[in-house]
Protein 1
Amino acid sequence: MVLDQNDDIAVIHFDITDPTLLGHPDITRLIDPARPTAVLLANVLQCVPDAADPVGLIRRITRWQAPGSYLAVSHLVSDDKAVRVAVTDLMITATKGTWGRVREARDVDRFLAGSTLVEPGLIDVSSWHPAVDPGRRRTSGLSTYGGIAHVVSRRGFIDP
């Protein structure tokens, strides 16, 4: 595998909710938490059950990141409760119970409460570049919602 031949890349099979992840030897070898970093949680948080504390996960990451870092988050959301329940049930069955849930946009807003958001803030991600026509939009009742938070201190941006 090409990734195995590059010492500047690591593939880590690890539970993202495990608090020891950020101390993993491959992470500490490749990333200096004293320097600004970007962490991408692209469609990851919907895989984190409420019991695994997605807000706590974000808090750990942003407290680990140096000031000047960024955290990008996107999440599958729906305003329609029936759609949220149906997709969540399907994914829980498909993953044998190891999936989180489709949430509402307001849940994602709470995940990033207190953060300094990069413009345009938390929105449907297909709208990030309004000059680019995304083509025909799906009408499934699902969308991907997210934004980018600027980490301004080691305290993170969410109150304990």
Protein 2
Amino acid sequence: MSTSPHHVKDESLAAQGALRIEWADMQMPVLASIRQRFATEQPLKGARVGACLHVTSETANLMRTLKAGGADIVLCASNPLSTQDDVAAALVKEYGVRTYAIKGEDDATYYDHINACVDHRPHITMDDGADVIGVLHAERPDMASDIIGGTEETTTGVIRLKALEAEGGLMFPVMAVNDANTKHMFDNRYGTGQSTLDGVIRATNILIAGTVVCVAGYGWCGRGLAMRLKGHGADVVVLEVDPLRALEAVMDGFRVMTVAEAAKVARLFITATGDIHVLRKEHFEAMQDGAIVCNTGHFNVEIDIPALEALAVKRRTIREYVEEFTLADGRRIYLLAEGRLVNLSAAEGHPASVMDMSFANQALSAEYLVGHHAELQKKVYVVPAEIDAEIARLKLATMKVAIDTLTAEQAAYLASWNQGT
């Protein structure tokens, strides 16, 4: 695969994809300002980047920014169903980015594409779920010698990388882009909340108002999703294993239950935990006829799909992205988007305006790695606070929002200890 300069579905879709990229770019002013600076300063000149991200119009604008900064890029998909084929074609034909991504690609092709990314011998890896780093560490450690560092976009990926670090196996430093405040507080909450609801509605066209909806997980993604569902009139039930998050959900006005309790009352189930088998055989057996299950976590393991398949006596695709499983007693359970990220599989993913901040973090973290890799250890690092603050400042400026600054007296007061009552 790596001997081919690219692998996309249909290059004739490039013009359509370019329009989609242009539309997204108009809503990504922070990234555009970084791209303008990068074009002048060339901070990534000569750096090979191996990026494994969702191939969407927003990602295309990140690739344009990295290329403007001098990077030599190979891009592959981080999920078999999230690729926008017209965008992939435009990246190849209009922007000269080597891209390996086809919506609906099988597992073998998916990993062929990741290996094409690894074969680029990147200096910087850029992951959305840690699959490139996973392949490098598990199968191709000999290819890691040129790597100065990596970036990781997702909660799931950061969890994997911290586990690798704890085992002493991480071979280079990684910037946890997901943990930047201007990423997870906005992308995970507002982006996931809106785009997941969008994916569910596009796939099913069900009425959310009045529906009992179970949200598994009350991290930043789950919070945002519960908030959006409540706004649409849903009766939201939250599942949690963390007592503090569960308490927060209760205080936010949601019912909190065990999975076993929720399985009996909810019609729609959405997992957002990053963990395996949240919905299992015993839960499917308790669900009502017509229950809908889907996932907005990174990997398609949160729903135990093999268990659902084993319970079914019949299955069929009833509409695009909706598969019906009929159980022995006649009850039907509907699985959306093969259990993959429903917001990217059945919809278009996060709005461009929120990805503006996430991808600004990616671009500036890559620049940071080029300038500071010699002083970094083989650890997972939080994005420096100054980068976070600069992205927030730029975003506010593009929104025409002005804020105050501390007076000298106020700054001195906050820095003192002896000015009490």
Protein 3
Amino acid sequence: MSGEETGACEFPAEPNNPELVKTIITEYKTIAVVGISKKEDRDSHRVAAYLKKNGYTIIPVNPQEEEILGEKCYKSLADIPFPVDVVDVFRKPSALPGLADEIIPVRPKAVWFQLGIVNNEAAKKLADAGIPVVQNLCIKIEHARLLG
């Protein structure tokens, strides 16, 4: 039985690579935010707003919205008509294996599962496709830690 079936938390099978985290924060500037909310009190909204304020290009991905944070909102990753550097994920861990199948054809430079979001099956699927993954970290917190 998996951790999800028993209600137990899953922990990353592999530790996050500090060099990958640093590269994402310092070099990758176009970030698709999957699961972003229009509600300002949600973490997904606050993190995306912070990233935008700090010079990143934010691409909201939410099938229910037309625009978030003044940016055109896309229904899916496949609808984005230009390359993205990072896919930042705010979705339930159970949705991630299917989402990984959507991410792979987009070929981002990296995928980031936000704080509290871990799915080793999805992470392995992405890694096997040559796409590095960060799990269970907040990109906003890591940006502040690395760049102040």
